[in-house]
Design brief:
single chain; 245 residues; alpha+beta; Herpes Virus-1; 30s Ribosomal Protein S14, Chain N; three-stranded antiparallel beta sheet; 7 helices; 10% strand; Znf_RING_CS; metal-binding; zinc
Length: 245
């Protein structure tokens, strides 16, 4: 019998406990990642049926150098396709609502404050790159291992990746909607932003940086021109004073 992600959830003891209990609250233990021990964020399922946060399972594979299931120890000969677990995603969202938790919008912080997600917490090194696919940040040592295994992943300057998750779909905010002037995910682009002009976040950032540098240059030129006119006026005033005397 093939174990689907939903089958694995329904046959877990915590789920049966919740269904037989009179309390309407969902069990956090059932919908939490066994790697980070927190409620799922962008949950994906492996061929064996077990589910993890996408960033957690990719980080595990990068650190260990092999594609395996941390829960049942199944080793995959090739890196398997990660399938989004919409059931776990919706349940995790409900748990967050029950606790009054809300996903944050994208708000980058200084790169010096971003630590590597693979280093031990007490000895975490400063991150040098963040991966938009894994939604995780890596130090100089771990980014080398990550790059060698996942050559097609997009790396950017280090930033708080938990702030780059869409609060609606829990997907990375990889696109920028020029109509609404906000960062969106791929699912946003296919739904409420389907008729809007969207471009990659990196392209928008590059264009804005170029525009900012141009504006800065124009302001410097304007200041120099104004300063030159002020000097001319001062010189003219001095000459007038001399003529009056």
């Amino acid at each position: 019998m093939v174990k689907t992600p939903l089958f694995c959830f329904l046959t877990e003891t915590p789920f049966l406990t919740v269904m037989s209990s009179s309390t309407p609250l969902l069990s956090k233990e059932l919908f939490q990642c066994s790697v980070c021990l927190d409620v799922f964020t962008h949950p994906v399922s492996l061929p064996c049926g077990h589910t993890f946060c996408q960033s957690c399972i990719l980080a595990q594979w990068t650190a260990s150098g092999s594609s395996h299931c941390p829960k049942c120890s199944t080793v995959f000969q090739e890196t398997p396709e990660l399938r989004e677990n919409s059931f776990a995603r919706e349940m995790a969202k409900q748990i967050r609502k029950q606790k009054g938790q809300r996903s944050s919008e994208y708000h980058p912080v200084a790169s010096d404050n971003v630590l590597c997600d693979l280093c031990p917490l007490e000895k975490a090194s400063r991150a040098v790159k963040s991966c938009l696919v894994c939604v995780a940040s890596y130090c100089e040592v771990h980014v080398t291992s990550h790059t060698s295994r996942f050559t097609k992943h997009t790396l950017v300057q280090p930033q708080r990746m938990d702030k780059r998750i869409c609060r609606i779909h829990e997907r990375p905010l990889e696109l920028y909607c020029r109509y609404d002037q906000s960062a969106v995910c791929v699912l946003c682009m296919n739904t409420e932003h389907s008729t809007h002009h969207t471009i990659p976040v990196e392209r928008e950032w590059a264009e804005r940086k170029t525009q900012l540098l141009k504006t800065q240059s124009d302001l410097k030129r304007m200041i120099m021109e104004r300063w030159s006119k002020v000097e001319e006026l001062r010189h003219s005033i001095k000459l007038n004073k001399v003529l009056v005397i």
